[in-house]
């Protein structure tokens, strides 16, 4: 089913493992997708692009790890 049909099942969910983070923590974000296999791009920005990386989704979900810095 293509994205954009308005159905609830078409949404990608991002679920963080905590509500707040401190510098030095690593945010672990569960990404649940209504489709698989899939590829995505994680881009971290703060006053410009800090980093970007490609990731794959298999089994309908993956965990993204994002280091939290100052």
General description of the model:
There is one protein chain. With 70 residues, this protein is mostly beta strands. It has strands spanning 13-16, 26-32, 38-45, 49-57, 61-67. A hairpin with a 3-residue loop joins strand 3 and strand 4 (49-57). It is globular, with a radius of gyration of 14 Å. The chain starts with 12 loop residues before the first strand and ends with a strand. The model has no long low-confidence stretch (mean pLDDT 87).
Helix-strand pattern: EEEEE
- Tell me about the largest β-sheet: 3 strands, antiparallel
How much is the average pLDDT? 87
Helix content: under 10%
Question: What is the terminal-to-terminal distance?
Answer: 40 Å
Strand runs, count: 5
**Structural class estimated from helices and strands:** mainly beta
The proportion of strand residues reads over 45%
Number of helices: 0
In the sheet with the most strands, the strands line up as 1-2-5
Indicate the radius of gyration in whole angstroms: 14 Å
């Amino acid at each position: 089913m293509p994205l954009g049909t308005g159905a609830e099942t078409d949404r990608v969910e991002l679920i963080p493992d905590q509500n707040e983070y401190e510098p030095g923590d690593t945010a672990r974000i569960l990404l649940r997708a209504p489709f698989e296999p899939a590829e995505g791009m994680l881009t971290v920005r703060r006053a410009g692009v800090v980093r970007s990386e490609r990731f794959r989704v298999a089994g309908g979900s993956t965990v993204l790890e994002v280091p939290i810095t100052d």
